[in-house]
Every structure is written in structure tokens, then in C-alpha cells.
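#struct-pred

JT: dropping the chains for the assembly here, can someone run the whole complex?
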Amino acid sequence: MSAYKLLLLPGDGIGPEISAEAEKVIAFLSQAGVAKFEIERGLVGGAAYDAHKVAISESDMALAQSADAVLLAAVGGPKWDGVPYNVRPEAGLLRLRKDLALFANLRPAICYPALADASSLKRELVDGLDIMIVRELTGGVYFGEPKEIVTLENGEKRAVDTQVYTTHEIERIGRVAFELARKRRNKVTSSEKANVMRTGYLWREVITALHKREYADVQLEHMLADALGMQLVRWPKQFDVIVTDNLFGDMLSDEAAMLTGSLGMLPSASLGAADANGKRKAMYEPCHGSAPDIAGKGIANPIAMIGSLGMAMRYSFDNAKAADAIDQAIAGVLGKGLRTIDIKGDAPSSISTSQMGDAIVAEL
Amino acid sequence: MSAYKLLLLPGDGIGPEISAEAEKVIAFLSQAGVAKFEIERGLVGGAAYDAHKVAISESDMALAQSADAVLLAAVGGPKWDGVPYNVRPEAGLLRLRKDLALFANLRPAICYPALADASSLKRELVDGLDIMIVRELTGGVYFGEPKEIVTLENGEKRAVDTQVYTTHEIERIGRVAFELARKRRNKVTSSEKANVMRTGYLWREVITALHKREYADVQLEHMLADALGMQLVRWPKQFDVIVTDNLFGDMLSDEAAMLTGSLGMLPSASLGAADANGKRKAMYEPCHGSAPDIAGKGIANPIAMIGSLGMAMRYSFDNAKAADAIDQAIAGVLGKGLRTIDIKGDAPSSISTSQMGDAIVAEL
Ligand SMILES: CC(C)[C@H](C(=O)O)[C@@H](O)C(=O)O
Ligand SMILES: CC(C)[C@H](C(=O)O)[C@@H](O)C(=O)O
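RK: done, full complex below.
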């Protein structure tokens, strides 16, 4: 059994706490002989800034490049509000995405039946919800140039961001969406603002052509991003796979995750293109953020982080058995009524981050 | 009594139907001697394209420039999906906003108590909800240059949109938000993606400085746009005034409107700067779209359109009495249980567009 090279980046806020719980699961899988890991650890975000005055060090970037998968917890927090822009915590995350060329961000929005009542939406609207948002992750307004603030002659400032998309970038993310849809409910909703943005116009054109050429068997619909944001609230179950750009994907995937009432539960995968051997670079992280307000209290929910490890087992390490076991263990502890405070709802009591990690390991 | 110069632009889809109901209210106000109107009518969107192959004609633009207020219903529909980009229906709306310099878009998200059950959210989360979204409307990615699609040497296409904001643009929309907050619950939430976008960074800087300099009495918080999209779902009542850019405002105001369950009820105002006489150019329109799927069926809800006339009475014609009367008439018919189909809920039956207009006039 060859070892999986896994780089752990706990990051900031609740990151280290939830990361420690994922490590318990890793230790268990190793001991049980299910998988062998070669673990490296690094710093990203505010943690890297505090140590080295960068958002991620060159040596940690090198580890990320050579890892089979990166498991990142979360970055950012008010502590670093004042640091220079190019070394702010998010810059570490963005560099990882860009330098590893992780163009495909898969964000499932699943409503765990045990948690349907935790949603702000009426139960019947979210119970059984299962959407997959495919977000383009290395293009758009996140990386386009010019991206700058200049001071004008009159002393005012002028800021610019540039959204760029090419045929190729849209096509490859479209493919990911159509392929996923074929394994799910065979429907793709593509979203942009074609009525206002030239990138949106090209997006719709390219997705339409790709669909016609290679994926005519999949049902395709186009929906403007503002309308999609509304339809998510109104009737989320109408969606199967949603494919959209970097910025709309950021907004819509967060909205969808919050709808489920299971935000602390949702993992995500960011994937690169497959190489000649079918291997792809990959990073896995929870959908939620670093939650600085509850950091250090031992009450954060580690499930999304452990679920992200599960996604790594599935997508990077080709170990569906281990992935299934992790998913079942999560469903198991939830079924037993174990809850961290964020998903407590009407439950009589809640358990700590560490108790939740232990419970999942016990279930395994 | 001097006459108010009002330009009516019914536009597309359900536009003409709901516009006709607003005209009934106008006729009533005239006959009752409450206000005197000088009404002009014009074409915008697909209607203008069908007639003149433009999204709005020069003569209608001239009417808009000389009107005290423009009352627009809605533009767009699949019928015009294939028309050239620069004359697509939305181009008419965008030109009106830009040429009239209507930089401040006020979008109230109010939950009418009679309709709280129509929301997808649990009743207690939206009952009594009253948010005002202040969206910047003449800048950002909607209008920045370059904005183009070019064909590359390899035959691929490359599309670009440019988001631009200057100190001045951010300051003037910030002022609108702070002033409104003072008359409401004194809280402003400013939203951008300062962690990813230079425009967001400048936005936060300028709003922070303006607050410190002139509005320190107002409570200010900054929230990233993706987080705000989530918080709107989780606990919308935490917000009072939200101020944000053109694109985020598009998304967030639609999401907020949908949350209320009262989408067909919500008007909006787009205002320019005040001139030396305190007069400002203004356009009023429903938050909802042209709903081509139900156009011509006589079932559209005219309340947002009539409410938009009410907003015109308040903000352009300085006639708070007439505005209040319209708002009360709307509340009155709802109180009586009258419902168009979109807000029918568990009601035993629904009424037509025209019956709703008549009922509001009768109530007046
Ligand atoms: C932290 C931030 C840079 C990031 C983003 O905007 O992409 C986050 O919101 C996300 O969705 O992963
Ligand atoms: C019709 C469209 C151009 C417009 C916009 O994107 O601004 C609409 O969605 C709105 O919010 O008024």
C-alpha cells in the first residue's frame, strides 16, 4: 500500500481545532490499515503572516505542489485587517488555488435530514436537498488584470478589478459540470449576467455550444445570477448541478450552503486538470470560514473538515470505501443526536469540537 | 397646483398590464384633485426594439430627461434573446440609469404582515422585516471599460468586463445610505469583497473615512458580500440599511426581496443628485421583472408598480399625503384578503390584475 501524501494547512480561527479532529480520523484510518498517509504540515493565512510575514511561504507552496492533496481548514480574521494587501490571509488561499491551477471548485449543498429543522427555510423546501455547485476558481474577477488602486490628479482614488474569461476556461469548467450531472440527476443550470456582462455573454455562448456538441443528453438551462439567487430561496430543489463563474460561485454557493441549515457540515473540493496518469492536484476545505468569534472555545463543528478528508479519500486517493465509511460515521453520530452548538437546534445539549471528533472516530 | 411631468414606460412582458393599473391610480388622483399630472408615454426594451430597432429612442430619452419622474414597469424576455447586444432590452434600462445619472437605487425589502406566510423562510424570521438596500447604480462592472469580446489568434474568444469605482462615487452613495439610516434604525451595513477586489478595498476605506468624518452617530458595520448573502437567509432582521455596489446590489436586493415573500409588492426608486433647486432626476420601477411566462394573462400583481407610483409621489413630487394614501390603500386591500395569484397562498381564491387595480382605487 503506497502512502498518500497529504499536506495539512490548519490556517486561522477555528482552523487548528477542526484540523486536529481530522487528524484523529487520519490516525484511525492509518491504524486500522485502511490507508497509509505521509503527512506534512504547513502554515497559511494569518498564521503564516505571524510566522513569516507572508500569506504562505515558498517552502509550504513547494509542499503543496508535491502533495497528492492539500487539506486546508480556514483562513482570515479581524486580527489581520491591517496587514498589507498582498500578504493578507486570503492571498495564501488564492495563491494555492492559482498556482496549483485548481480551476474546478465543487461545493455540495446537502441538507442532512437530521438537520432540516435547522434551516431558516420551511422544512419541506430543504428536506432532502442535494445540489452540486461547480464554481470556476482560477479566473474571473479574482485574478484578472488590471487590478489596482491609483491616485488621480485631483487626489481621489480610482480602483479597478477586471473580470476575464476565455473560451477554454469556460469549456473546461462546463465539462466538469456536465460530467457530474450525468452521474446525478442529469441537469445543469448555467448562471451568469449575460444581459449586462460580456463575460456572461461569452459564458452562455460557450456552454450552449459545448452542450450541443458533447452533452446534448444532459438537460441544460441558463439562469441569470440574480434570478438564481432568488430561486435558491424560493425553491432550491429545482436544481441539480449549477455551474457558474468565480464571483457568482462565491456568492451562490454560500447562499445555498446556508439554506441547508447544515453550513458547518459542508466540505468542498478544488480540483485541477488530470495529468497523463489521470492524477490531478487537489485541495479540500470546509465551505464555512474561520469563525474568529468562536475560535479557541472548543465549540466549532469539525464535521465539514472531516467531510473534506472524506472527499479527499474519494477524489484524490480513489478510496471510495474509506470515503463512504467517513460519510456513514458522520450520519451515524448525527442519527444518535450528537450535536455541536451550531446545529443544536432544540436538542437538549451540545458537545465540544473534540467530543464530536472522538464520536466520529468511535463510529468508524 | 403645478403639474407633475411623468413619463410612463410600460416596457415588456407584464409591463403594459401593471402599468395600466398604475394609470388608474393616476387618473383617480387627478380627478380627486390630489395632484395634477402631465403624462407622456414612451417605449423601452423589447417594445422599443420592435418599433424602432433600438432599446430606447432618442425622443423618448429626451422625454425622460425633461420629466420630473419616469415610471418604468419592466423590460426583457426570451423573444429578444437573439437581438444585437447593444440594442437588447436591458440596454434601454441601463441607458436611462446612466444618462439620467441615477446613481442611487433604493430597494426596500419589506415583509407585509399579511404575506409573511408566503415567504419560504419561517414566519418568525421575516415577519415585520424592513430592510433598505442602497445600491450604487451608475458605476461598477455595469459600465466600466474595457467591456468587450475579442477573438484571439488561436480562434478562441476572450471576454472582459471592468469594475471601476472612484472615491467620489463611493462617497456619494455612502451619504445616501447614512442619511437614510438616520431616519430609520440608524445602522448601515456596507458590503463588498475587500478581501479579493481592489474596488472592494477602496469601498471599505472610503465608507470608513466618510463615517468617521460625517456620520459617526450612525452605527456602521462591514460585511463581505458572500457573508451578507448568507446572513440574509439566516437572520435578515439584523439589517437596517445595506449599502453596496452595482453588481452585489443586484444580487443581494433580489435575494432580500424574495425572502420577504412579497416580491410582487416591492417598488424601487433610482435617484440622481439634487440640483441647485433641490430637484433630482428620478425613475421608479417594481423590483420584479417582466415575467414573460405570465404576460398577457391578466394575472400579474400590479402592487409593486402602484407602490412605485407611491414612491414617486413621496420622493419626486413631495406629496407624502398621496404617497401615504397609496400605501394605506395597498395595505387595505391586503387586509381585506384580496390576492393576486402570486401571493394567493392558502387564500380561497385570487383576483386579476385589473381587479386588484380597481380594488386599490376603490380603497383610495
Ligand atoms: C476567503 C475568500 C478569499 C474566499 C473566496 O472569496 O473565494 C471564500 O469566500 C471562499 O468562498 O472560499
Ligand atoms: C434587467 C437588468 C439589466 C437589471 C440589472 O441587472 O440591474 C435588473 O436585474 C435589476 O436589478 O434592475
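JT: nice. Residues 130-259 of chain B form a domain with the Isopropylmalate Dehydrogenase fold (CATH 3.40.718.10). Chain B has two domains: 1-107+266-364, 130-259.
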